[in-house]
Design a protein that fits this description.
Strand content: 15-25%
Helix content: 25-40%
Largest sheet: 5 strands, antiparallel
Number of helices: 10
Order of helices and strands: EHEEHHHHEEHHHEEEEHHEEE
Shape: globular
Structural class: alpha+beta
Radius of gyration: 19 Å
Distance between the termini: 38 Å
Oligomer: single chain
Length: about 300
């Protein structure tokens, strides 16, 4: 079988949003029958790394973008992201959601809802108010009319083909209005870091990258841990000042299932020399690490550093 390669130069692996968007492309294509055998690796590009897809020939950019757009529109309005505006969900309601998603998966009615539910939180642990403990990727909970699930639905429904094309092939012009999932370091709009007062400056983002990043979440499930707590795949730490997310850049052609396992390996989060040796043996050429910071009622992620 002949194959073709498609480079996505605008998705820089050294940034959390770029990495998540690349995984979103990869995972979405892997769920489609005609591209289920897709593979991905990273190659040096710009000042970082950019993803390369290996697909059945031909792999035309416009065709790939159309497939992604159709998949996003299919996500819009689904019960998994319209169950509420935010992840302030009671244990009982979350279990109902998870049960429906599992039933849909087993009956082949909906193959994506279960993965999204597992990425949103875990009903094994709840807080004092009876709400589930949720994903480390949550950056908002309704303050300032910023809603985590509602923004996902808007992105899935309203992102255009042109915005997806810009996200993949660039350049990123930051000309799109909100919503943004706040996974881009550019979303950190603290007054001390800016020339003018940020509340008077309209939010500008790359909507296509945010939409694609949402579809990567099923690769980062939330699981219960010892001590009556939960952990999100690829995260380390729990507090507002010591929570980090780390992600690998790999050089070999990998399937999405292999990448799913790679993301969960604890050595990706470690800075020990032995962990680096182990990563090298797996073909991991770089690891980036970003801190999640809490600013008032919002969360942001800092510019990534090489781990």
């Amino acid at each position: 079988m002949s194959t073709a390669e498609l480079t996505l130069p605008a998705l820089q692996g050294s940034g959390l949003l770029g990495f998540l968007a690349a995984l979103g492309v990869f995972r979405t294509l892997a769920t489609l029958p005609e591209t289920s055998d897709v593979r991905m690796c990273w190659v040096p590009g710009g000042v970082s790394y950019c993803p390369v897809l290996q697909l059945r020939a031909p792999a035309e950019p416009d065709s790939v973008v159309e497939k992604l757009h159709t998949a996003l529109r299919g996500l819009a309005g689904q019960y998994v992201i319209t169950v509420d505006k935010d992840l302030k969900i009671t244990r009982a309601n979350f279990r109902k959601l998870a049960t429906k998603a599992a039933d849909d998966f087993l009956s082949h009615t909906n193959s994506t809802a279960a993965g999204m539910v597992a990425a949103f939180g875990c009903d094994a642990v709840c807080n004092d108010e009876g709400m589930i403990e949720d994903t480390g990727f949550r950056t908002m909970s309704g303050a300032g009319h910023q809603h985590f699930l509602e923004f996902m639905n808007v992105l899935a429904r309203e992102t255009t083909v042109e915005q997806l094309h810009e996200a993949l092939f660039g350049p990123w012009r930051y000309r799109d209005s909100s919503p943004t999932m706040r996974w881009d370091a550019e979303d950190d709009r603290r007054y001390a870091l800016r020339w003018d007062e940020p509340s008077k400056d309209p939010v500008r983002t790359v909507r296509g990258a945010n939409a694609l990043a949402v579809t990567a979440l099923p690769l980062f499930p939330v699981v219960p841990t010892a001590g009556n707590s939960v952990a999100t795949t690829a995260f380390v730490g729990r507090g507002s000042r010591d929570t980090f997310v780390a992600w690998p850049i790999w050089s070999a052609w990998l399937s999405v299932d292999v990448v799913r396992s790679l993301l969960a390996i604890k050595e990706m989060e470690s800075r020990e020399a032995e962990a680096a040796t182990y990563r090298n043996a797996l073909g991991v050429v770089a690891v980036y690490r970003s801190q999640r910071i809490t600013l008032g009622k919002y969360r942001n992620f800092t510019p990534a550093e090489a781990a």
